[in-house]
Amino acid sequence: MVFAAGLLVPVIPVGIDFSSELTFPEEETVSTGFLLMSAQALGFILALVVLQLAIINSTLGLGMITLCALIASLISLVIKEDLRRIKFIRDFRPEDIVNKDELISSLRLSSQFGP
């Protein structure tokens, strides 16, 4: 278990960076904060459920952790790679900017209604 947790250490920064790419018009700190907050809440709830299952039967607790890992792996396979920040930087032209507020509002509108 400790070995498997050690293998996740390099994945965490990549996941955080990918989440900020997927939520580009939003600030990176906001998306990172929500990601970490939801991970902490889900981890707390999962720990409570697994503890109660382990009290009943230890294999139920292990099965729950395995099931959650399998579901998370399957969900991660269907995430569409939409690198908005890279696309924006590639297509960026300084002459298109009139003012900062107009740029931010146009980014938010374009992300809400598609590319």
Sequence-ordered SSE layout with sheet pairings:
Blueprint: H1 2-8, H2 11-22, H3 28-56, H4 58-77, H5 84-91, H6 100-112
How would you characterize this protein structure?
By secondary structure, the protein is mainly α. 77% of the residues lie in helices and 0% in strands. The model has no long low-confidence stretch (mean pLDDT 79). It starts with a helix and ends with a helix. It has 6 helices and no strands. It has a domain at 14-90.
SSE ordering: HHHHHH
Tally the beta strands.
0
Bulk shape: elongated
Unreliable spans: none
Average pLDDT, rounded to a whole number, is 79
Strand residue content? under 5%
Number of contiguous helices: 6
The structural class is mainly alpha
State Rg.
Answer: 19 Å
